Amino acid sequence: MTERSKPVAPQELTDRLFATERNPEDFRFDAAVARVFPDMIRRSVPGYTTIIPMIQVITEQYIQPGTNAYDLGCSLGASTLAMRHGIEYRDCELIGVDNSVAMIERCQHYVALDDHPLPVSLRCENILNTDLCNASVTTLNFTLQFVPLADRADLLTRIAQATRPGGALILSEKLRFDDDTDQEIQTRLHHEFKRANGYSDLEISQKRSAIEHVMIPETLESHRQRLLKAGFERALVWYQCFNFVSILAIK
């Protein structure tokens, strides 16, 4: 019997998708984005490299034995793996869900390379159609903002109904601000963060144009009120950097 070969990690590339003039089109999580996604999100989302390890810490606190944990919109699995390392109970099931074939395929490689005994089930499907049950921890890490506004309340209600008492939802999002001055300040700081990470004005402008019709941010108060209405007992901000926030909703 030959020794089983180890999976090869997908090659990570520098994000140059918007570095040259291109025809305007809506942002898609296709194969081109999947190839550069780790670099793209680190250089685009302030605090991302803090949020991911803290997802492990939060999972450790709220996971319950014999329950399910969900990463909805798992992309390449960064938050999935953080959750995995926060689950000490071997009778739990961890499920990652994403509707992008390219993302799921590359996520499978990262999961296989991760040295942890807890199995991970990956589903390539729309999170609006995912069956949810017996959950104690669910993560929506910069995912809800891509869900149509009309579907967000129903999704959060289904998550809350599937969550056991004492369980939690980790919701990370980009924010919109009611006050125009606050909005302008936070947007400017975010763009300066991108420039500091090597993005040009052309890249910033073209990415913003491509994403503005598919990613719809909301105010912090909108998120809080919807979470409470969905059935969570408490919704608190545990992290914020500029116009990016992560909320802990507790059942």
UniProtKB/TrEMBL annotation:
Domain Methyltransferase: 71-167
SUPFAM superfamilies to which the protein is assigned, alphabetical: S-adenosyl-L-methionine-dependent methyltransferases
A biological process from GO: tRNA wobble uridine modification
This protein's UniProt keywords: Methyltransferase, S-adenosyl-L-methionine, Transferase
Reactions that this protein is recorded to catalyse: prephenate + S-adenosyl-L-methionine = carboxy-S-adenosyl-L-methionine + 3-phenylpyruvate + H2O
Enzyme class: transferase
One Pfam family hit: Methyltransf_25
Keyword presence, Transferase: yes
InterPro entries: CmoA (IPR005271), Methyltransf_25 (IPR041698), SAM-dependent_MTases_sf (IPR029063)
Gene Ontology MF terms in the entry: carboxyl- or carbamoyltransferase activity; methyltransferase activity; S-adenosyl-L-methionine binding
Superkingdom of origin organism: Bacteria
Subunit comment: Homodimer.
Family: Belongs to the class I-like SAM-binding methyltransferase superfamily. Cx-SAM synthase family.
Function: Catalyzes the conversion of S-adenosyl-L-methionine (SAM) to carboxy-S-adenosyl-L-methionine (Cx-SAM).
Protein's recorded name: Carboxy-S-adenosyl-L-methionine synthase
Organism: Marinobacter psychrophilus
Taxonomic lineage: Bacteria, Pseudomonadati, Pseudomonadota, Gammaproteobacteria, Pseudomonadales
